[in-house]
C-alpha cells in the first residue's frame, strides 16, 4: 500500500474558524492511513508554510482542512502550482461550493431546488428582507461551515443581531427562507458521471438545533442511516444531491446538505467539498452503511488524488 501512494501528507489544522474540527479530522485520517500501511505524515497548514510544504516533497496529499484557506480553492491552487496530487475538488469547484450564495445561484440556474434567498450588506433593509422571505428565516455567513455564525431568526427584532453575528465572518451575508422539516445529508463519492450518492443520513438534533456543539462535542444528536424515507423520496434526494455536486464540478468526494419539507420536497442547502472526518462525522457514517469502514473510506478517497488543472495523477 505504501509503495502505491508514496509519501502522503495529511493537511490539517489551518487558519479558519473550523481549525479545531480540522485537527480532529486530520488526526483520524492520519491514523487510518497509517493503519492501512500508508506512509502518512501530518502537516498543519496553520503553522507551517507553503515553502515547507514544497520541501516535504509529498507524492500526494489528503486534504482534511475545513473552511477558508483549505476548502475554498486556495490550497488547491497552491497544490496545482506545486504539482502535488490532492484529494477532493479542484480550485474552481472548491471556491464555488465554499460560497453558498454562488452555489445557490448556479443551482437556481440549473433548475435545482434550493430555499429562496437574498444577499445582505450594511445598507440592506432588514425588515423588507424579512417580509419578502418570511419568518422564520436563516441568516448565515456564506463562506463559513459547521453552522458558525448561523442564526435562526424567528422575529423581526432578531434580524439585526443575526446580521451582525454573520457579518463578523463575511462582508456579505446570506438570508435564506427557513424550511421546516427533516434535516438530511448525502455523501457523494467519485467524479462526473461516476459520482454516486451513499445512503442518506437523517439528523435529529435536540429541538432541531444542529449547531457546532451538537455536531462535534455531544452525543445528544441522533443520526438515522439509512434515513427512514419512502424509496422514491430516497431516490429523489440522492439524485438531486448527485446533480448538485456535478453542476459545481465537484470531484473525489463531498457531502450535500438537504432539507426535506412536510410534502417530501427536498431543498438543497450547500455542498461541503472537504467534509468532516471526526468521530461524529456523517460521511464515515454513510460509508459504513454502504459496507465501507473508516480506514477503507480514507484509502478510497486517497486513491482518487490528482491535480485537476494539470491532470497529473501520480
UniProtKB/TrEMBL annotation:
Binds 2 magnesium or manganese ions per subunit. Its EC number is 6.3.2.4. One of its GO terms (cellular component) is cytosol. It catalyses: 2 D-alanine + ATP = D-alanyl-D-alanine + ADP + phosphate + H(+). GO terms for biological process: cell wall organization; peptidoglycan biosynthetic process; regulation of cell shape. The active site is at residues 18, 146, 281. Keywords: ATP-binding, Cell shape, Cell wall biogenesis/degradation, Cytoplasm, Ligase, Magnesium, Manganese, Metal-binding, Nucleotide-binding, Peptidoglycan synthesis. GO terms for molecular function: ATP binding; D-alanine-D-alanine ligase activity; metal ion binding. Mg(2+) 2 binds at residues 270, 272. Its main location: cytoplasm. It comes from the Bacteria. The keyword Magnesium applies. It is an enzyme of class 6 (ligase). Pathway: Cell wall biogenesis; peptidoglycan biosynthesis. Cell wall formation. This is D-alanine--D-alanine ligase. It comes from Pigmentiphaga kullae.
Amino acid at each position: 500500500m505504501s509503495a502505491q501512494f508514496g509519501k502522503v501528507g495529511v493537511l490539517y489544522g489551518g487558519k479558519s474558524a473550523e481549525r479545531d474540527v480540522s485537527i480532529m479530522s486530520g488526526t483520524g485520517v492520519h491514523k487510518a492511513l497509517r493503519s492501512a500501511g500508508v506512509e502518512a505524515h501530518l502537516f498543519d497548514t496553520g503553522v507551517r508554510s507553503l515553502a515547507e510544504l514544497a520541501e516535504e516533497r509529498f507524492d500526494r496529499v489528503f486534504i482534511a482542512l475545513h473552511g477558508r484557506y483549505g476548502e475554498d480553492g486556495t490550497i488547491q491552487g497552491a497544490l496545482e502550482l506545486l504539482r502535488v496530487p490532492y484529494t477532493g475538488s479542484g480550485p474552481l469547484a472548491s471556491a464555488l461550493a465554499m460560497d453558498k450564495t454562488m452555489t445557490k445561484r448556479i443551482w437556481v440556474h440549473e433548475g435545482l431546488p434550493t430555499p429562496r434567498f437574498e444577499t445582505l450588506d450594511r445598507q440592506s433593509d432588514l425588515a423588507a428582507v424579512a417580509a419578502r422571505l418570511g419568518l422564520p428565516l436563516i441568516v448565515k455567513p456564506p463562506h463559513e461551515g459547521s453552522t458558525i455564525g448561523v442564526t435562526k431568526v424567528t422575529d423581526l427584532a432578531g434580524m439585526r443581531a443575526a446580521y451582525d453575528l454573520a457579518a463578523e465572518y463575511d462582508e456579505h451575508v446570506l438570508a435564506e427562507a427557513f424550511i421546516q422539516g427533516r434535516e438530511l445529508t448525502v455523501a457523494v463519492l467519485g467524479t462526473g458521471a461516476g459520482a454516486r450518492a451513499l445512503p442518506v443520513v437523517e439528523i435529529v438534533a435536540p429541538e432541531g438545533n444542529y449547531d457546532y456543539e451538537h455536531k462535534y462535542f455531544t452525543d445528544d444528536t441522533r443520526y438515522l442511516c439509512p434515513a427512514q424515507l419512502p424509496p422514491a423520496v430516497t431516490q429523489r434526494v440522492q439524485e438531486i444531491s448527485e446533480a448538485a455536486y456535478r453542476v459545481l464540478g465537484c470531484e473525489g468526494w463531498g457531502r450535500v446538505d438537504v432539507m426535506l419539507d412536510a410534502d417530501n420536497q427536498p431543498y438543497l442547502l450547500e455542498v461541503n467539498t472537504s467534509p468532516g472526518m471526526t468521530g461524529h462525522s456523517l460521511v464515515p457514517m454513510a460509508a459504513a452503511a454502504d459496507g465501507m469502514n473508516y480506514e477503507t473510506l480514507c484509502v478510497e478517497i486517497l486513491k482518487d488524488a490528482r491535480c485537476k488543472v494539470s491532470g497529473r495523477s501520480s
